[in-house]
Amino acid sequence: MTIRISCHLITWGEDLLKGLAEASGLGYRACETFTHIALQYENNVAAFKELLQQHNLVLSALYGGGRFSDKSKRQEVIDYNTRVARFLQACGSDRIVFGPGGPRPEGGMTPDLLKTAAETINEAAKRCFDLGVKACVHPHLWTEIQDEHEVDAIMELTDPDYVFFCPDPAHLAKAGMDPVEVMRRYKDRIAYLHLKDVTLDDGDADSVSVSSGTEALPIFCELGLGTVNLPGIVDLLKEINYDGWMTVEIDQSTSTPLNSLTICRDYVEQKLGIPIRGQ
């Protein structure tokens, strides 16, 4: 069993070329990037693939999704995710992250909204699956799928043959869940993973930042600097023989993207025991 490590280029913002170069230089051999950046190459996939190859990288996934609970947007959501899945297929990648839309409805999601969301997810995921791409639902703070009962409802109402799970332990923890427990519950449907850390000392799911000592940190911090039980996550993945991608992700650096992803790389290799360089 080998967990494969990918690096999200979100930390470099819109600078794709610098992100590719520095991530590759750190030893990462796969990446996820902003979908709107990747789709700039939609009519020249060969150029995008060549760019990845120049940096010894492959594309692990792209972020799709949409406003699942708005029935009037259903066809738009299906068409967009099919478009992204077609690009992924052309790039040799077989995972799409289904990110739910925001903002959250006032008072959270009702049973009717969750039912509508599940129906849209099912239809969009089936279209992706037909293209050889697995759609992985990603619960996310501040969106229509944030809290535990919303995660449970979506997983219960969607088709396990087409709809998979992309947990992010930091998002789950910040929303008040035990990430290991939730991941164990849906272990048979985990097909992609974002690996993030977060400090939980201050604020709640409505916070935009937290404080650590005298330094203000983004809500999500470098791996090992927060309070998420990352070793427990990896232990579970090993237990279930997970051999897919685990994408290291830090939204914003307080220093430089290179420094932040170096800290993350060293943590994964030294503390979690998963090689990145040479994988």
Write structural notes for this entry.
There is one protein chain. The strands form 3 sheets. The chain has an 8-stranded parallel sheet. Strands 8-11 form a two-stranded antiparallel ribbon. The chain has a two-stranded antiparallel ribbon with strand order 9-10. The chain has 279 residues and is of the alpha/beta class. Strand 4, helix 5 (111-130) and strand 5 (134-137) form a beta-alpha-beta unit. The protein has helices spanning 16-25, 35-38, 45-54, 74-91, 111-130, 148-157, 169-174, 179-185, 230-239, 257-270, and strands at residues 4-8, 30-32, 58-66, 95-100, 134-137, 163-165, 193-195, 197-198, 209-212, 215-218, 220-221, 245-248. Helix 4 packs parallel to helix 5 and helix 5 packs across helix 6 (148-157). It has a single domain (4-270), classed as Divalent-metal-dependent TIM barrel enzymes (TIM Barrel, Alpha-Beta Barrel), CATH 3.20.20.150. The longest helix is centred in the middle third of the chain and has 20 residues, at 111-130. It holds the Pfam family AP_endonuc_2. This is Inosose dehydratase. Residues 21-252 form the Xylose isomerase-like TIM barrel domain.
Structure summary:
With 279 residues, this protein is an alpha/beta fold. 39% of the residues lie in helices and 18% in strands.
Main β-sheet, spatial strand arrangement: 6-5-4-3-2-1-12-7
Flag low-confidence runs.
203-217
Biggest sheet record: 8 strands, parallel
So, the CATH homologous superfamily? Divalent-metal-dependent TIM barrel enzymes
Return Rg in Å.
18 Å
CATH topology, by name, is TIM Barrel
Corresponding CATH architecture: Alpha-Beta Barrel
* SSE series: EHEHHEHEHEHEHHEEEEEHEH
Mean pLDDT: 93
In helices, the fraction of residues equals 25-40%
Overall form = globular
Overall structural domain count:
1
Helix count from the secondary structure assignment: 10
User: What portion of the residues fall into strands of 2 or more residues?
Assistant: 15-25%
What is the number of E strands?
12
CATH top level class name: Alpha Beta
Class based on secondary structure composition and strand pairing: alpha/beta
InterPro entries: IolE/XylAMocC-like (IPR050312), Xyl_isomerase-like_sf (IPR036237), Xyl_isomerase-like_TIM-brl (IPR013022)
Pfam family, one: AP_endonuc_2
Protein name: Inosose dehydratase
